Amino acid sequence: MLPCFQLLRIGGGRGGDLYTFHPPTGAGCTYRLGRRADLCDVALRPQQEPGLISGVHAELHAERRGDDWRVSLEDHSSQGTLVNNVRLPRGHRLELSDGDLLTFGPEEPPGSSPSEFYFMFQQVRVKPQDFAAITTPRSGEAGAGAG
Fold it and tell me: How confident is the model at residue 146, as a pLDDT?
């Protein structure tokens, strides 16, 4: 079993979507998330208001740490990214922990429905035969910019 990490979508009409990431061998890589499918590894397409998700909304940076991956999240959006309901300042990176809750898009007012893009971050181990479901990085090596 090989170390991977996942984003499990738990909010919005398409809850249950699962993205599994196994970075290629090497120092690390970057995965982009956002509205622009041509630039991003994971396309976040809002059903109601497209402007709530930026073209390249955020990046996941994965770096090798022993037998696992150290994964950090960096916000590039105009609408915001939250980790455990705390807004991540634009351009800042935060190391993620297993079970962290990620929200892409603006903070929801109290009593409103949760964001369409609400995910749980998970550290997992995957069998090599399951690699057909792995998301591969489009954006290249660690440190790739949002372009």
Answer: 34
